[in-house]
Amino acid sequence: MKSRIVLSLVTLLFVGVGLSAAQKSAIKAGHLIDTATGAVTSNQIILVEKNPTTGRSTILEIGSNLTIPSDAQVIDLSNQWVMGGLVDAHDHLGITYKEEPENWNYYMTIIMDSTPLRAIQSMSTGFQKLASGFTIVRDLGNNGLYADTALRQAIEMGWVPGPTMINSGIIIGAFGGQLYETPEQESTVYPEYLNADTNDEIVKAIRRNIHYGAKVIKVCVDCQAYPYTIDQLKLFVSEAANAGQKVSGHVQTREGARRAIEAGLWSLDHDGALDEELHAMMVKKGIWRVGTETPKADFMRPMSDATWERRTKMLKNAYDQGVKLAFSTDADYYIPGFNRGELTIEFLRTWIAAGIPNAAILKVLTTNGYEISEMQDRRGPIKVGFAADMIATSQNPLEDINALRDVQFVMKDGQVFKKDGVVNGLDFFHNGPVYGWRKR
After folding, report:
1. Contact assessment for residue 134 and residue 166, using Cβ atoms and an 8 Å cutoff
2. pLDDT (tens digit, 9 = 90+) per residue, 352-406?
3. What are the DSSP calls for 242-272, one per residue?
4. 100 — phi, psi (to 5°)?
5. Ranges in the chain annotated CATH 3.20.20.140
6. What distance in Å separates the CA atoms of residue 92 and residue 87, rounded to the nearest whole number?
């Protein structure tokens, strides 16, 4: 359902990041879902209170017979299914492939769009994803010169609405990153990628990203003909751990994935190289599978039947083997008629086609997402003392996971961002900016 425009985004930003800035709120949840277990409790009251010193809102009490304070704003979700927010474990908020006939041109963004422009685009993308219920996003590179850090800081300071971000800064890779420069234009790789070939360069690149605000390290394991060795990847892990961080590995070959598993990376991103044997190795090592499983649909980029069959088969195999699974999209492209939040939720198609049960999909989208983001002890679950993030749907996602296509309510950090299916200024993203090719 397309949300009606109530206020322009500009007005929203001046008046605050939500419809409500109350010090206390009481949410009447008709059906409260514990996404970790699939259990549902009825007629619960969730009391949320804002700390006047920190400005942060946390969950104060949860119960069926609570007394609602007289000064609390009452939010009636008695006919709704309430749960923690959703998580996209792999996206790139500061990039949208430009639309051209028969080509999605990645180079057009990195050459033609400045970092300030991409920071604004990041805010736009984050706004759209939050409107679809995604309260946490792992933003894994391709954001120019740290536009991702700028957005994360702006969200944390309450300047703009958006999901909680775990950002990687600039992707680190062997010479060339994911690109193919000419000798005359070797500089094209930067700032999309940091070339790091020696141990010293690897350490320097990791420290640079952390210094400029990265919260997770992203490495291109095998993007060129000279993939990183196991020892080099272990260096990534140990140097990131020195600063309390984890390493997310872009993998596109079986050998690269094997090396990344042996080295103990936190997550393997993209599913194309993974198979039954590698899944078994991942289970033993406790490594996350961040598959970015693009669905096969007539409005998406072309995909062969063989690729689609393998994708769904391997996702089901990973589930059956007990691999730690995260919902992820890599949805960094423009599709007419969809904003980025709507495009993100379309990836449910793959999980449904793979035969994953509804409760398991919901757990992957929520509980697993909090864990891979390392937020499970303070943000995500609806628990006393945790950050007040939650969403609600009019239908039960445990019975039909497609209920998540119509998120009616979003609360982020105790502020109501979306209510009764309405977000202030959301239609701005349908009627305002043009994401396709633009002339200078």
Report:
1. no
2. 999 999 999 999 999 999 999 999 999 999 999 999 999 999 999 999 999 999 9
3. HTT--EEEE--SHHHHHHHHHHT-SEEE-ST
4. -140, 155
5. 86-372
6. 14
- Which part of the chain has CATH 2.30.40.10? 9-84+380-429
Q: Which H or E element spans position 431?
A: helix 428-431
Architecture category of domain 9-84+380-429 in CATH:
Roll (2.30)
And the tokens for 169? 């800064």
Amino acid identity of 333?
Answer: Y
Provide the CATH topology of domain 86-372: TIM Barrel (3.20.20)
Q: What is the arrangement of strands in the sheet containing 324-325, beginning at the earlier edge strand?
A: 193-195, 171-173, 217-220, 247-250, 267-269, 288-290, 324-325
For residue range 176-201, what is the model confidence (pLDDT) as tens digits?
Answer: 999 888 898 888 889 999 999 999 99
The whole-number pLDDT of residue 108 equals 64
pLDDT at 263 over 50: yes
Joined together, the tokens standing for residue 352 give 């449904």
Q: Is residue 295 a contact partner of residue 335, using CB atoms and an 8 Å limit?
A: no
Chain centroid to CA 147: how far? 16
438: pLDDT strictly greater than 90: no
* Average pLDDT of the residues in 219-225: 97
The closest alpha carbon to 392, from 17, 35, 100, belongs to: 35
Give the Cα separation of 330 and 291 in Å (integer).
9
Residue 163, amino acid = P
Beta strands in 51-160 (DSSP E): 57-63, 73-83, 86-91, 98-100, 103-105, 134-139
Q: Name the nearest CA neighbour of 233 among 288, 292, 174, 170.
A: 174
- Mean pLDDT over 263-285 rounds to 98
- The separation between CA 358 and the C-alpha centre of its own chain, rounded to angstroms, equals 20
The neighbour count for residue 291, using CB atoms within 10 Å, is: 28
Nearest alpha-carbon partner for 356 in 365, 343, 369: 365
Predicted confidence (pLDDT) at residue 437 exceeds the cutoff of 60: no
What's the rounded Cα separation, in Å, for the pair 136 and 263?
27
- How far is residue 327 CA from its own chain's centroid? 8
Q: Which two tokens stand for residue 25?
A: 């709120």
Give the span between the Cα atoms of 321 and 319, in whole angstroms: 5
pTM higher than the cut 0.70: yes
Give φ, ψ of 336 to 5 degrees.
-55, 135
